[in-house]
Amino acid sequence: MIQARIVLFSFLLGIGTTLWAQKTPMVSIKGGTYVPLYGTADKKPVAITAFEMDAYPVTNAQYLAFVKKYPAYSRSKMKGLFADKSYLSQWESDFDYGKNNLSNAPVTNVSWFAAKKYCECQGKRLPTMDEWEYVAMADEKRIDARTKEAFNKYIMSWYEKPKTYANPIGQTFKNYWGVYDMHGLVWEWTADFNSIFLSGESRKDKDTDKNLFCGSGSVNATDLMNYAAFMRYAFRGSLKARYTTRNLGFRCAKDKVALAKTIQNIR
Question: 80-91 b/e with 16+ CB inside 10 Å = b?
Answer without folding.
Answer: eebbeebbbebb
